[in-house]
Amino acid sequence: MARCLVTGAAGFVGRSIAAALLARGETVRGIDNLLTGKCENLSGLEAMEFIEADLTDPGACARACAGIDTVFHEAALASVPRSVQDPISTHRHCVDATLNVLLAARDAGVRRVIYAGSSSAYGDTPTLPKHEEMTPNPISPYAAAKLAGEHYMRSFARVYGMETVVLRYFNVFGPYQDPGSPYSGVLAVFCQRMLAGRQPTIFGDGQQSRDFTYIDNVVEANLLAAAAPAGKVAGQMMNVATGASSTLNETFDILAELTGYSGKPAYAPARAGDIRDSLADIRRAEELLGYRPRVHFREGLRRTVDWYRSQS
Ligand code: UD1
């Protein structure tokens, strides 16, 4: 790899990829509009060149892509419920931004763009595990927007010969995930609340299940996707997950043990746009990248709880 650009570099996934790249001695540039990303997340990334700008600005994308070999496009406005509330902003920061990044990457001669896809693309199809041959069925505006980005990736591979790789992440969690917004991922919220002795709320009956994926596995998949031969991965899409799932009720029980929280969860009505079960088939990433999830759910939760504890 020569020079790398990480979009969303002040966000949870982006900063984690940037840290891994720096640790390998790569030259890294990051861009973030700090809308949901945080300056604190840049600590430890001092060796990274940082641009504070918005990807909806084509000029900013051009500056960010100049001289770059590989783009890790992690920037997005995450969250299903946020997209239900405000679909236009989700579209702008997921779809318009992605097209701008691709155009700037094409014009700058970027070799490879790796895109953070979302398991939400599968929607509420009853078939489990979700495999890449399944017809997408996005339910929420967020899912539709992330899927649109995937289609742009594939079309840029087809018509401009760019090496695009889509990694469909399944419920990523771990250190640096923001617990402080109503749109935060469930494990970040639960860790923070339970460590503080505050009752978490489960939306629905808690029997919904997710293939919760620890951040190190996602970082590893990105590094593998950057290094894989073009003939194997260019224009491809694959799941990045663990291939196992847990219900929210089960997860609550493990977290109670790890945090020492002795209360019960509160239950509230299920969220609009929520899906019931999510579990990935990860054979394609195994085959194309040699990917294997190294950190399993319980160990990931343990590390995550330790990290939130160290922050509080
Ligand atoms: C969805 C997408 C995921 C995407 C993420 C971005 C699917 C399968 N996944 O995840 O690809 O990256 O949005 O935000 O669509 N919950 C509670 N209590 C809380 C918070 C959440 O019970 O305090 C519940 C939710 O209702 C949901 C589950 O926990 O059933 C997981 O929610 P969340 O962490 O927001 O992720 P998803 O919506 O599954």
Write a structural description:
The relative contact order is 0.14. It is built from eleven helices and 13 strands. The strands form four sheets. The chain has a seven-stranded parallel β-sheet, sandwiched between helices. The protein has a two-stranded parallel sheet with strand order 7-10. Strands 8-13 form a two-stranded parallel ribbon. The protein has 312 residues and is an alpha/beta fold. The mean pLDDT is 97. The structure holds uridine-diphosphate-N-acetylglucosamine. The site of uridine-diphosphate-N-acetylglucosamine has 21 residues, from helix 6 and strand 8.
- CATH A-level architecture of the domain at 3-174 and 213-243 and 280-294: 3-Layer(aba) Sandwich
Largest sheet: 7 strands, parallel
The fold-level CATH name of the domain at 3-174 and 213-243 and 280-294 is Rossmann fold
User: Unreliable segments (pLDDT under 50, ≥5 consecutive)?
Assistant: none
- Percent range for β-strand residues: 15-25%
Q: What is the general shape?
A: globular
C-alpha termini separation: 37 Å
User: Using only CA atoms, what is the Rg?
Assistant: 18 Å
- Residues in helices, as a percent range: 40-55%
Average pLDDT, to the nearest integer?
Answer: 97
Which structural category fits the helices and strands? alpha/beta
Number of helices: 11
CATH homologous superfamily classification of the domain at 3-174 and 213-243 and 280-294: NAD(P)-binding Rossmann-like Domain
